[in-house]
Design brief:
The chain is mainly alpha-helical. It is 64% helix and 4% strand.
Amino acid sequence: MPLSPTTLLNTCWILFVLYWIWSARQVKSTVRTEAASSRLLKYWLPLGAAFVLMEPIPWIRRTVLGVRFVPDLHGLALLGLLLTIAGLLFACWARVVLGNNWSAVVQLKQDHELIERGPYRFVRHPIYTGLLLAFLGTAVALGEWRGLLAAAIVALSFWRKLRLEERWLGEQFGATYADYMRRVKALIPWIL
């Protein structure tokens, strides 16, 4: 019996989270970090809400959020699954290239490096790009408005987070970061 697209989606997300936790073992020491209360309100609560929206909770599915925005076609579910996988792989690639400069929250690390190779040649925030693509793919696979709302919540949360990161990186790297910002778009190559 073949696995359903929903089962495959859940498996992809679980594997991604496990990899993310495992890869966080070795990072540089932190020299500056955003306040915990700010992180909770701006990022963790919205991300939690987005993940809840992605789950088949009966009362949500009985609202307008449970209405389909695309037809219930196997091909669309497969397309959504492929977009999700592509997004998660792109985020993982960025995480590998970022190495021990990575953090789950807005931080500056000891001996922080400005990374411009790998996916960072195409966008300044490829982890966010990959995760946004994955959320959009999951929304397409689910086919319901709740998925699009979840993707929009994540996009807003990431936009707020990247603006703070940009400010801190600009302070840390000065003209070098300003030049990088002129050459490379934040989230979508050559567009945004």
